[in-house]
Amino acid sequence: MRGLELDLFPDPQGGLYDEPLIRQAVGGGPLTDPAWQQPGIKVFHIADLDFRTTCVRFVACLEQVRAWSDANPRHVPLFILLELKQSDRRAVDAGGVVDPPWDAATLDGLDAEIRSVFGESGLITPDDVRRRRLTLEQSVLRRGWPSLEDSRGKVVFLLDNDPGTIRDAYRAGRPNLEGRVLFTNSRPGLGDAAFIKRNEPRDANTAEIQALVRDGYLVRTRSDVPLTTVLSGDTAQLAAALASGAQVVSTDFPVPGMAARYDSDFVAELRGGVVARCNPVNAPSFCRDRLLEPVSLRRGDS
């Protein structure tokens, strides 16, 4: 894997999510990990309902990524999708947490938390891609992205949210994401359009994604939908995702055996077990999968 997706909730004062409704219902009491009390963005799935997580604080998650990156400095760029979430309405109606909005202050705090872990040299940001006198979109379409060699050991942060109020707030006064860390999920024809999300890669969408990739956009798609894919055994979405040339292919089953609990052998992986491959849509003829990462790293932990 060379990509992650994290669900984020704002918690500028700390302690907002330490006693989920579902624990209150069973008399479980507050969560005991002191990280829940610390100020800063939290990482989990659904407020009050699905709070289990491997790292409570966003910064702690980033520190894990940074440690791996520092130990493997020749890796291909890592793509981290961030979904900025809000409280579940059902939980709020039942007396659950009403969390702060993702407004200018919390979005500035998001950028600040990322930069507190990754210095500018460890990131690829919109400012690194945009060229003088061009919009961000014009820059990727006319001049392209940084080369692989210039991108090794770096991290790219992507806003997973669909265009709407959060994206609008993040780019307010910054139509080309000037000074921002994240690339926003946008639409062709807009100034901030460098990253585009197309979750469904099948049928006519395959050709659409291929065209976007040829034009120069960074595209994310999905290889499966839990749990429909593994229960049906249908691998058509996986095949379409890989054929589309989307640079980021998201899956819930990246390792053999993860679907075994559902009596399935489904796994989304690249042929040959590599962690990155030459793009089937726009890679130069001299590109070779085995040269994208050092052999020792490809065989190491991922």
Can you offer a commentary on this structure?
The chain has about 300 residues and is an alpha/beta fold. It is about 30% helix and about 10% strand. It contains 12 helices and 8 strands. It has helices spanning about 20-25, 60-70, 90-95, 105-115, 125-130, 135-140, 150, 165-170, 205-215, 230, 235-245, 295-300, and strands spanning about 5-10, 40-45, 80-85, 155-160, 185, 195, 220, 250. The mean pLDDT is about 95.
User: Helices and strands, in N-to-C order?
Assistant: EHEHEHHHHHEHEEHEHHEH
Largest sheet: 5 strands, mixed
Strand order in space, largest sheet? 2-1-3-4-5
How much of the sequence lies in strands comes to: 5-15%
Identify the overall geometry.
globular
Helix content: 25-40%
According to DSSP, the number of beta strands is 8
Mean pLDDT: 95
Report how far apart the termini are: 6 Å
> Low-confidence runs (pLDDT<50, min 5 residues)?
none
Number of helices: 12
Global Rg: 20 Å
Structural class: alpha/beta
Key traits:
302 residues; 3-stranded parallel β-sheet; 5-stranded mixed β-sheet; 8 strands; 11% strand; 30% helix; alpha/beta; single chain
Write the layout of secondary structure elements.
Layout: E1 3-9, H1 21-25, E2 42-43, H2 58-71, E3 78-84, H3 89-93, H4 104-117, H5 126-129, H6 136-142, H7 148-151, E4 155-159, H8 165-171, E5 183-184, E6 195-197, H9 204-215, E7 218-222, H10 228-232, H11 236-244, E8 248-250, H12 295-298
Parallel strand pairs: 1-3, 3-4, 4-5, 6-7, 7-8
Antiparallel strand pairs: 1-2
Helix pairs in contact: 2-4, 9-11
